[in-house]
């Protein structure tokens, strides 16, 4: 399982270093203060592998300047995207998911003092959803199988590449204190990533 999983995750030992270098070239494209989260928000994208760009949203609690912060990675399930984790509805039905479904957990993580990272998972939200915002997983999942990979493995690969890329750009993060959480599809990716990346991720919820 542990030997074969990296291949299903989107690459193997031969190209891992090149993927890490690509991920570390990510560029911050937005930084703004958001009063509703009481945090500084930084939006960025990076390439986890060739032709795959992953949008991320990092929230740094206000008043944490000069501190090393633990990191909470949050993963949405099969929804319209990572904006649900931030409690910001975009599509019809989002508001119910944000509040009624208790999916806006990034807000809570920030309030608990975590630097909180929302990662857009493949085939959801900004990473290839349908025009109405709903996930578009079926065909990509079948295509991945034909290539000897799995969609859930590719999502775990993206999480791994994100962790590799963060230290060079965000020195305020304590990379020795990383937790991960998710619901539904994100709740499937979270424990798999935790198991696969045991040396990097300390806690899975």
Classify the secondary structure makeup into a structural class: alpha/beta
Assess the beta-strand content as a share of residues: 25-35%
Could you give the distance between the termini?
22 Å
Query: Helix count?
Result: 7
Can you tell me the residue ranges where pLDDT is under 50 for at least 5 consecutive residues?
Answer: 1-5, 18-35
Mean of all residue-level pLDDT scores: 84
- The helix/strand series, from N terminus to C terminus, equals HHEEEEHHEHHEHE
Portion of residues in helices? 25-40%
Lateral arrangement of strands in the main beta sheet? 1-2-3-5-4-6-7
What composes the largest sheet? 7 strands, mixed
Strand tally: 7
Could you say which overall geometry the principal axes of the C-alpha atoms support? globular
- Radius of gyration using CA atoms only: 16 Å
């Amino acid at each position: 399982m542990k030997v074969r999983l990296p291949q299903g995750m989107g690459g193997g030992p031969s190209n891992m270093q090149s993927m890490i270098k690509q991920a570390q070239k990510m560029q911050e494209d937005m930084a703004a203060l958001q009063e509703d989260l009481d945090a500084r928000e930084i939006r960025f994208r990076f390439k986890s592998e060739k032709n795959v760009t992953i949008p991320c949203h990092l929230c740094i609690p206000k008043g944490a300047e000069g501190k090393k912060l633990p990191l909470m990675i949050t993963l949405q399930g099969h929804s319209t995207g990572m904006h649900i984790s931030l409690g910001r509805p975009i599509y019809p039905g989002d508001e119910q998911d944000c509040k009624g479904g208790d999916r806006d957990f990034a807000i809570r993580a920030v309030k608990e003092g975590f630097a909180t990272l929302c990662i857009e998972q493949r085939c959801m939200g900004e990473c290839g959803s349908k025009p109405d915002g709903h996930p578009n997983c079926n065909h990509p999942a079948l295509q991945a199988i034909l290539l000897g990979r799995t969609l859930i493995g590719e999502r775990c690969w993206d999480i791994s590449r994100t962790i590799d890329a963060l230290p060079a750009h965000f020195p305020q993060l304590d990379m020795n204190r990383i937790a991960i959480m998710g619901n539904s599809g994100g709740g499937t990716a979270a424990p798999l990533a935790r198991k696969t990346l045991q040396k990097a991720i300390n806690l899975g919820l």
